[in-house]
Amino acid sequence: MTSLQTLPAKQWRWLDHSEQGLDYSPLHSFAYDDTLCESVGKEDSFPIVHTWIHKPTIVLGTLDSRLPSIHRAIEQQNENGFETIVRNSGGLAVFLDPGILNISLIVKDTKTFAINAAYTFMWNVVREMYHDAAKEILAGEIAGSYCPGNYDLSIGGKKFAGISQRRLRGGISIQVYLAVTGNGSERAEIIRHFYQIAGGEDSPATPKVKPETMASLTELYNRKMTIADSEARMQRVFNNHGITITPTRLSSNEESRFQKRLSLIDARNKKILGYEQKAR
């Protein structure tokens, strides 16, 4: 089984944007992940942890962008104060806000990290982070949740996290979004309403979201949870396996690649949406 304990690397970099990310679009975070994938893939860098949080944003999958009334739905959400973007990895729509902690574990693409092994790797990390949950953290699709998949993570049948991955230039970014604070069903209701406008409530092509299937860790633990506590839990998991994670910044070469990646992602986003929405 792939876990932190089985990895040879005992030094990791940590790019922490859990505060900085509130000032820019999630397009930046996807560009950071692509940049760091290349660094790790080329063996120019140790493996990397990238943590990030954003202001309220609807992040669409490519399939979502093809819904017939997508622009009307985007315009309405803009009026509600929510940015809408299209990410560069698979899946369907998710909702980001300051109560959602995103963690990317960026490793070299090797035989160790076949597709399912990479998903299981992140699942194991999350299980260790929240080992004190009242019930076991399970992986498996939660029907009715937004962006459903085989690696939805749930406690007591309520989804609080989802895992995705992106492979680029010899590196893999294994990403998880964790609903730490706030109300999971309210977030799901935003996505449900978005789909109703974008695709039509009665259309079979419109994803069906049931808000009651989703919750935050604060709700599941029935006590206040924080982003800082979740990051501390993550650090402890690494430390328990003898791994040091060191705060880092981009190197000058990485900064140059980041700017190029951001331009590409921004251009792709606007092309897919056919909509002038610049990365801020």
TrEMBL record:
Site location (Lowers pKa of active site Cys): 159
List of catalytic residues: 147
Record keywords, A-Z: Acyltransferase, Ligase, Transferase
BPL/LPL catalytic domain ranges (all copies): 43-225
GO biological-process terms attached to the record: lipoate biosynthetic process; protein lipoylation
Reaction(s) catalysed by this chain's protein: N(6)-octanoyl-L-lysyl-[glycine-cleavage complex H protein] + L-lysyl-[lipoyl-carrier protein] = N(6)-octanoyl-L-lysyl-[lipoyl-carrier protein] + L-lysyl-[glycine-cleavage complex H protein]
GO MF entries: ligase activity; lipoyl(octanoyl) transferase activity
Pfam annotation, one family: LplA-B_cat
This enzyme's EC code(s): 2.3.1.204
InterPro entries assigned to the protein according to its UniProt record, in alphabetical order: aa-tRNA-synth_II/BPL/LPL, BPL_LPL_catalytic, LipL, Octanoyltrans_LipM/LipL
CDD domains: LplA
UniProt pathway annotation: Protein modification; protein lipoylation via endogenous pathway; protein N(6)-(lipoyl)lysine from octanoyl-[acyl-carrier-protein]
Biological role stated in the UniProt entry: Catalyzes the amidotransfer (transamidation) of the octanoyl moiety from octanoyl-GcvH to the lipoyl domain of the E2 subunit of lipoate-dependent enzymes.
Family statement drawn from the similarity comment of this UniProt entry: Belongs to the octanoyltransferase LipL family.
Note: The reaction proceeds via a thioester-linked acyl-enzyme intermediate.
Name of this chain's protein: Octanoyl-[GcvH]:protein N-octanoyltransferase
Source organism per UniProt: Salicibibacter cibarius
Gene that produces this protein: lipL
